[in-house]
Design a protein that fits this description.
Arc Repressor Mutant, subunit A, elongated, 4-stranded mixed sheet, 2 domains, 3-stranded antiparallel sheet, alpha+beta, Trna Endonuclease, Chain: A, domain 1
């Protein structure tokens, strides 16, 4: 059975909370800017199928025998694509914590994280703790850069022309596509158009590397 949200997230004065419109289809609540950025980063990742907030409640006890309940932040599901079930990425149970907090409190939090690891293993998931180093990386910087181009509007026939041409080529660097389709006075518009196609996931690239005129682009797919 696919988990649903196990705990309701309520507004808090101690952090920034809100609702993230995941791919315009699902409203995912978050309790901090780091959690919001985690969702945004995974939204851009085409291998990510869905994110379940507060997906399960895990019972654990301390040495004194008193029992507690721990609710991890997210459960991430991935697409199968063209992979076989033997190398299919297992769902990922995630706790989002700033590095300064987990370094200060890791001894206190270790029992619940061990319980989460055991629970994930039982469900055939993985359990990870994500801090700024795993969330606000080069990929996230690229996503932030592309955000300004996401809502731009360009003629559909021009977009199709670029996509179909690139599909025939297989892949091409940004500067080549710019010179091929947007010469002279149209260069500035072409720059925005190409970044728009990447921002809206119609084109793809190695998003983990810095974006520039040498970035190699190809037509996006869900494999």
């Amino acid at each position: 059975m696919i988990p649903t949200q196990a705990r309701t997230i309520k507004p808090t004065r101690r952090s920034v909370s809100g609702i993230y419109p995941f791919r315009g289809e699902t409203a995912i609540p978050y309790e901090s800017t780091l959690e919001r950025d985690f969702i945004a980063r995974n939204e851009f990742n085409r291998t990510v199928l869905d994110i379940i907030p507060q997906p399960c409640q895990i019972r654990f006890s301390l040495r004194g025998g008193r029992e507690y309940t721990y609710t991890p932040d997210f459960l991430v599901y991935f697409r199968l694509g063209n992979r076989t079930h033997s190398d299919f990425p297992r769902p990922l149970l995630v706790e989002v914590k700033p590095e300064s907090q987990w370094r200060e409190h890791w001894r206190d939090w270790l029992p619940k994280w061990k319980a989460a690891y055991r629970y994930a293993k039982q469900e055939e998931w993985e359990f990870h703790i994500h801090d700024e180093s795993r969330i606000r990386d080069q990929m996230f910087a690229n996503i932030q850069f592309l955000e300004r181009y996401k809502r731009m509007v360009f003629p559909r026939e021009e977009s199709d022309w670029i996509i179909q041409g690139l599909a025939r080529m297989g892949s091409a660097p940004f500067h080549y596509l710019l010179a091929r389709y947007f010469m002279g006075l149209y260069r500035a518009e072409g720059i925005s158009h190409l970044w728009h196609l990447l921002a809206t996931r119609q084109l793809d690239c190695d998003i983990y590397r810095p974006l520039n005129e040498h970035t190699v682009l190809w037509v996006a797919n869900d494999e």
